[in-house]
Structure formats: C-alpha cells, structure tokens
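Inverse folding, one chain.
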C-alpha cells in the first residue's frame, strides 16, 4: 500500500512538473524567434515591442492555455466513456460528438464556397464555423441523450453513436461532392486540428465551459468507480445507473463539443491518455486516474502543440492530428503489449 501511494505521488509530481515545463516552452518558443529576455519583458509588462507583445500574449500564451484545457477535457471525457461503456476504445469520436461538429463545420465552410480561410478569416466567418460546429455536436448529444433515456443497454447506445457517425460522414461526403475545391481544402485544414483557433477574447468563454465540465467530471468519480463492478452491482449499491450514464453523456458531450468546435476534431488524446494514466498509476481508482488523466492530457496537448509550432522552414504547416497520431499509436501499442504481458506472467 505504501509503495503504491509513493508511486502515485511520484507520478503526479512528475506529470505536474512536465506540464509546467511544457507550458513555459510553449510560451518562450515558437515559429518566431524572440529572446527569452524579451518574452519575460512582455510577460512583466515592460516591453515596448508591440509585435513581440502580440505574439507572446495574444498567440503563444492563449494557445498554451487552450492546449492545456483542451487536453485535460478530452482526457477526462475519454476516461469516463471508457468506464461507462466498459470499452477501452471509447472516446468522444466513437459516440458521434466529433462527427456532429465536423458536419456543422462542413455545412458552414463548404456551402459558403470556401470563403472561410482560417488565416484570413473575418471574425464573423470564424464565429459562424464555431457556432455551426457546436450546434452539430449539441444535436448529436441531444439525440444520444434521448437514446440513453430509452435504451437500457450500453452496447446498443454505443452502436447508436457509431451509426450516427456513419450518417454524418455520409452527409459530409455528399457536401464534398458539391463543394468547390477551395471549400474542400479549407474543411480538410480545419479537420487537422489546431489549438490556435481560440482568440484572447474567446478564451474566457472556452475556459469557463471546460472548467465547468472538468468539475462535473470530478463529481462523477464515485459513480464511475461503482460502474467498474458492473451495472448489476452498481444498482445493488443504490447507484442509479441510467441517470449516471446520462450525466456522463452530457458532461463528455459538452467537453468534446467545446473542444471540437474551437479547435477542430483533435485525435487520440481521449483514447490514449486514460490508458497512460492507468499504466503509470497502476490502479483503476478514478480518484487517482481522473486527475492524473487531466494532468497527463494537458501535458500531451502542450507537447504536441509545441512540436507543431516549431520553425519548420519554407512556411511548412505541421498538422496537430498528425503529431497526435504519431505519438498516440506507439503509446497505445506499448501500453497494450505491456499489459498483456503482465497478465500472461501473472
């Protein structure tokens, strides 16, 4: 018991330290070379260089906060869904939340003939994409909530979410057939994911919604721990399984919809990080792995965002989801392999 507590404390300390270091790296380094002393002057309000001030405060700092909150949100959502459905491959994408946001964004981008380029996007255009993506996610969430009130089987609800994803993908394919080449290109660009889509004016709203969702996730720790024992045992302990499942769907839907609407469909964090949290802590107790998953998710998102913003030369853009996948696939395979080997040896 003492060794396990020591291990958990060490893991938390290392994860928190890594998050702080990566946050600082995101603020001090980027595609534009600014001396560390210049960054410090900007942060302390002593710099007269308006270009540096804009880059550090309006871009790097906001992007770092967005990545940290977005990573924590997706990790918490993925963990809750994996426990709720007893499925190690569950995350917000499998329930169709990301697909709903993608359909909303596709409607806003492709039907407007590609007039919403992110680099030269007028404020009204960006807001339109943002609202459309969130409405798409909310529509799917409302549909799944209605299903959850009727269906008693987790498997049936999971299948319903997958079917919703197929339907939305079909509509997106139809839109692609009738859209302009530029419109398809801009939609593909949006689908690569980007933590730089949140402005300083929108950050308070983004942070407030995500923080509320994370608090809601923490309040679901006890029902999640009981769900690990099975629905029948949970009912015997007095846990209203259907009500808890509906709350989990709403919380994860809000977290997934918010991140996807602001940042695009960010891949692999919700799927991979919960496994990393379980592997590092050596426990399935959500009192431990819920906060650990949030911290690890923030660290992973900051690390990937840092890589994407490194100077690549010739104006090359590094897609966020490409970095996420290159990191996520090896981690998942390693965790699964080590877990299988430990079960075999035991």
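Residues assigned per position:
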């Amino acid at each position: 018991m003492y060794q396990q507590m020591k291990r958990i404390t060490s893991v938390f300390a290392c994860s928190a330290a890594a998050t702080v270091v990566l946050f600082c790296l995101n603020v001090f380094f980027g595609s534009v070379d600014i001396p560390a002393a210049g960054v410090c002057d900007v942060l302390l309000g002593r710099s007269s260089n308006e270009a540096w001030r804009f880059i550090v405060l309006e871009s790097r700092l906001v992007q770092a906060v967005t990545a940290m909150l977005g990573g924590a949100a997706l990790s918490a959502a993925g963990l809750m869904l994996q426990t709720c459905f007893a499925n190690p491959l569950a995350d917000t994408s499998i329930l169709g939340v990301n697909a709903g946001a993608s359909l909303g964004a596709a409607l806003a981008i492709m039907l407007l003939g590609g007039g919403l380029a992110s680099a030269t996007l007028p404020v009204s255009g960006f807001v339109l994409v943002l609202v459309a993506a969130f409405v798409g996610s909310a529509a799917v969430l409302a549909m799944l909530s209605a299903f959850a009130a009727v269906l008693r089987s987790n498997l049936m609800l999971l299948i319903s979410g997958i079917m919703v994803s197929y339907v939305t993908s079909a509509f997106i394919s139809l839109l692609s057939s009738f859209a302009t080449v530029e419109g398809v290109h801009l939609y593909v660009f949006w689908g690569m994911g980007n933590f730089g889509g949140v402005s300083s004016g929108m950050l308070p709203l983004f942070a407030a919604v995500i923080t509320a969702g994370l608090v809601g996730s923490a309040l679901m720790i006890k029902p999640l721990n009981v769900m690990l024992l099975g629905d029948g045992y949970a009912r015997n302990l007095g846990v209203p399984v259907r009500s808890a499942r509906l709350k989990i769907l709403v919380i994860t839907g809000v977290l997934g919809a918010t991140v996807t609407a602001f940042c695009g469909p960010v891949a692999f964090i919700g799927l991979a990080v919960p496994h990393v949290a379980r592997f590092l802590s050596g426990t399935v107790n959500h009192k431990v792995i819920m906060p650990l998953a949030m911290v690890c998710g923030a660290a992973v998102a900051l690390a990937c965002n840092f890589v994407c913003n490194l100077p690549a030369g010739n104006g090359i853009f590094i897609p966020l989801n490409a970095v996420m996948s290159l990191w996520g696939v090896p981690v998942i395979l390693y965790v699964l392999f080590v877990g299988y080997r430990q079960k075999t040896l035991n």
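The chain is about 75% helix and 0% strand. Residues 35 and 239 are 56 Å apart (CA to CA).
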